[in-house]
Amino acid sequence: MKTLLLLIALLAVNTVLGGAKPALFDIPLKDIDGKDTSLKAYRGKVLLIVNVASQCGLTPQYEGIEALYRKYRDKGLVVLGFPCNDFAGQEPGTNAEIKAFCSSKFSVTFPLFDKLHVKGPKQHPLYAALTGKESPFPGEVQWNFGKFLVGRDGTIVKRFEPKTEPDDQEAIEAIETALGGK
C-alpha cells in the first residue's frame, strides 16, 4: 500500500512540474515595437505562429493569413507574425519598416513581433521549442511562412510547411478542430 501511495505521489509531482520544460507562454519575446512581452496574454487562445518576410515569393500569404485572423479571431484564434531574415535575406527591414509594410500593403491587424532567428546558432527559444526534439513536429523551419498551430493549452497540434496556403482545407480543418468547432 505504501508503495502504491509513493508511486501516486511521484506521478502527481511529475505532472505538476511537467518535466520542468518552459511553456511556450513563458518564453520571453519582444513585440514589433521592441517592448518586452511573452505569449501569456494569449493563454487559452488557439495560436497560429508564422515566420514572415516582406520580400519573399510567399509574401502574398499575408493576405490569406489576415483573412484567417479576421474570420476566426472572435472564436479564439490569434495569428502571431514573427519576421525572420534567415532565408535569402528576404526580411532586411527594421521592425518599423516591417510594421509599416504589413499595415500599408496587407492591412495586417494581427500581432507582430521583433525580428528573430528561426534556425541556426542564434535560433530564438520560441523556435527551439517549436522545432526541437521535444516538439511533436521536430525539424528546422524550411523557409518563410512556416506555420505552427498551438492549442489553447499551449500544445503544438499541427505544423504546416511554407507553401501551405492559409486557406488550405487541411489548415482550416485543423484550426476549426483546435477552436472546438469540429
Give structural attributes:
four-stranded mixed beta sheet, disordered N terminus, globular, two-stranded antiparallel sheet, Glutaredoxin, 182 residues, alpha+beta, 15% strand, 6 strands
Helix content: 25-40%
The overall number of domains is 1
Structural class: alpha+beta
Name of the top-level CATH class: Alpha Beta
Commentary on this structure:
This protein has helices spanning 2-17, 61-72, 95-106, 125-131, 169-179; strands at residues 29-30, 36-37, 46-52, 77-83, 147-150, 156-160. It is α+β, with helices and mostly antiparallel strands and 182 residues long. The protein has one domain (22-179): 3-Layer(aba) Sandwich (Glutaredoxin). Strand 5 (147-150) and strand 6 (156-160) form a beta hairpin.
Give a topology summary.
Layout: H1 2-17, E1 29-30, E2 36-37, E3 46-52, H2 61-72, E4 77-83, H3 95-106, H4 125-131, E5 147-150, E6 156-160, H5 169-179
Parallel strand pairs: 3-4
Antiparallel strand pairs: 1-2, 3-5, 5-6
Please provide a brief summary of the model.
The chain has helices spanning 2-17, 61-72, 95-106, 125-131, 169-179; strands spanning 29-30, 36-37, 46-52, 77-83, 147-150, 156-160. With 182 residues, it is α+β, with helices and mostly antiparallel strands.
